[in-house]
Write a structure and sequence with these properties.
mainly beta; 3 domains; single chain; seven-stranded mixed beta sheet; six-stranded antiparallel beta barrel; Elongation Factor Tu (Ef-tu), domain 3; 5 helices; Rossmann fold; 39% strand; 14% helix
């Protein structure tokens, strides 16, 4: 059975949260410390199963919408939209190593394309994410004629892009209309990409938690929990690991945290190994105060014997996006940029710049992993806009 990680893309108001709730039964943004007590934590946005029913249709549980017979679990989907970052797109670039496919949500009650939708499709194009399903949302708030007009606008907008041949599925998440067709399209279109399971293990920490209830006796305390995805390699229960950059003091000094993997959990429950292709929770022996409230988010987990270390100075081999809607001038020495490096987001000041390589002094340290993807954002008015991408050298 396949496991896939699916990125959620689309304009902020085009119904990502409502769709996630309709598919998984979970609101996307209710991950308070209270909600996620208990170790089998659902990460990213949420996880779900796709079930094939005896009549060949697909549904989100084995009850198959009251049809005869029981559905068979054929795919586990982890939705990934790392919360708390400046920009989903920049996060997607740095996390592109872990995404198998994407849902691009476009609302039927607005002209297509909206600015943000253009930007998101540009990112999917740039990343080479080919397994895309386009979801035409909010069909319940427009007339049939308007829905068809919008559908035609979407098809026109997708021409010549990586999503040109993507299925477009009209849905109403509010009323659950056409979710079976969406699940079918997701099952047939989004296949697992080839993963590097032989390389040096690398786990991206996207969330981190203290799952202990207040007043728990010391002898019954659980260690800190790290939630995220394997970018490559395999980690096993009992492995000695370190978290980089780990603890960052108020002065910006780092101390990598060493621990042992006590347990591994996924949508299916307890696992012996952490493998790429699904969201995971790693139970550790860390003091839970070091992981409470996403304190460790943005770090990476590697084997204790790894040479990977934290750095405040990076070199990036990069290329600029050609954008008609913002400044395309050469990046200059002294310019402040916002950078996504792997799972981490940090500001940096350009120390030196050529047309191909930037040297950047970072405000917050990151793990220095050669070849790691970097998203570069520049200030445009009141917001940061995606300007380019590159890799650590």
């Amino acid at each position: 059975m396949d496991s896939v990680i699916v990125g959620l893309f689309g304009h902020v108001d085009h119904g990502k949260t409502t769709l996630t709730k309709a598919l998984t039964g979970k609101w996307a943004d209710t991950y308070s410390e209270e909600v996620i007590r208990g170790i089998s934590i659902k990460l990213g946005y949420a996880d779900m199963g796709i079930y094939e029913c005896p009549d060949g249709s697909f549904w989100k549980d084995d009850k198959c919408k009251g049809k005869k017979g029981k559905g068979k679990l054929v795919k586990i989907v982890s939705f990934l939209d790392a919360p708390g970052h400046e920009s989903l797109m920049a996060t997607a670039i740095s996390a592109s190593a872990v995404i198998d496919g994407a849902l691009l949500l476009i609302a039927a009650n607005e002209e297509c394309p909206q600015e943000q939708t253009k930007e998101h499709l540009m990112v999917l194009d740039m990343l080479g994410v080919k397994n895309i399903v386009v979801v035409q949302t909010k069909i319940d708030v427009v007339s049939k004629e308007q829905a068809i007009k919008n559908h035609n606008q979407i098809r026109e907008f997708l021409k010549g892009t990586v999503a040109e041949n993507a299925p477009i599925i009209p849905v109403s998440a509010t009323y659950g209309v056409n979710l079976d067709k969406l699940l079918e399209a997701m099952h047939t279109t989004i296949k697992p990409i080839e993963r590097d399971t032989k390389g040096e293990p690398l786990f991206y920490v996207l969330r981190s938690f203290d799952i202990n209830k207040p007043g728990t006796p010391i002898e019954k305390l659980n260690g800190g929990v790290l939630g995220g995805v394997m970018a490559k390699g395999i980690l096993k229960e009992g492995d000695d690991v370190k978290i980089i950059p780990g603890y960052i003091s108020s002065k910006g000094e780092t101390t990598s945290l060493s621990t042992k993997i006590a347990s591994i959990h996924s949508y299916k429950g307890k696992e012996k190994e952490a493998t790429p292709g699904k969201t995971l929770a790693l139970g550790t022996l860390l003091d839970p105060s070091t992981t409470k409230g996403d304190k460790a988010a943005g770090s990476v987990v590697v084997l204790k014997k790894s040479d990977i270390a934290a750095t405040n100075n990076i070199k990036v081999e990069y290329s600029m996006l050609k954008r008609s809607d913002m400044d395309n001038t050469q990046i200059k020495e002294g310019e402040v940029l916002l950078l996504n490096v792997g799972p981490s987001t940090t500001a940096g000041i350009v120390a030196s710049a050529t047309k191909k390589v930037l040297s950047i002094n970072l405000k917050k340290p990151v793990a220095n992993i050669k070849g790691e993807k970097v998203a570069i954002q520049r200030r445009a008015g009141q917001r940061w806009r995606l300007a380019g991408s590159g890799t650590l050298v």
